[in-house]
Amino acid sequence: MKKLLKISIIVLFAFLIQILIGCGEDSKEQKAATNESVNIKLDDKAKSFGIKLSDNKDFSNPQDSFIEQRVEISDTTFANIKYKEAFNANGKLQDHTFFAYTLFVKNGGNKASTIEIDVDSGNVTRSCDKAIRISIIEEGNVDDTNNISFSKGAIFLKNDGHGDEILIEKLNEEPEKKAFYDRFAKVFFTNDEHFGNFSIENIGVNEIKKVTIIIWFEGWDLDDTNEIITGQMELSFVFSVND
Prior knowledge:
Elements: E1 3-4, E2 8-12, E3 15-16, E4 31-34, E5 37-41, H1 44-48, E6 51-54, E7 65-69, E8 72-74, H2 83-88, E9 91-93, E10 99-107, E11 113-122, E12 132-138, E13 141-142, E14 148-149, E15 152-157, H3 165-171, H4 175-182, E16 185-188, E17 194-203, E18 208-217, E19 232-242
Parallel strand pairs: 1-4, 2-19, 15-16
Antiparallel strand pairs: 3-19, 4-8, 5-7, 6-10, 9-10, 10-18, 11-17, 11-19, 12-15, 12-18, 13-14
């Protein structure tokens, strides 16, 4: 039986992403939540280096910010993420099991640059950060035979003694999915405020990189319980130039 949740996560992409998200266990009870808004914005330093953002590869309408409204999400597990849909989305993916945003980053400056994405949090209540998973993927694609490829990927999670132990046990029963999971670097949160960083290295002049960010609550995490359903947290993904 589904339970409705009112857990909120405000994601400030650091761009600023604001998002209300649900948490729960895919294997037990599905839980749902409603997104308030999504606001993505380039920071001043990135703009000064000629970095541009777009939700389409042709950059026909580059913008400094993107605003989306109302996204409903329920919990899931790593193996059930719809990567093909996430990678093919232009901007936000409307899905009921996870939140995804695919965007394109272009170096419109006069020299190669490395983009550093700092993932930070704040104002966490009811320990909602314990079960959250954040994946950042560079150049993610799915071919006609459903083979998934990407140049770089990372999953951010809290190192609290539980983590993905049960998930890994389940994935061991499906070797292909376990092999796919192992391709992601695992980044344990540095502390409660700073989750870690992700680098998009050496983007050449006029080069375009595709970036997909996926956020979900891991249903096989023992910390994904009803106790955190009213929690709230802020997440920030700060895109800056590492010069």
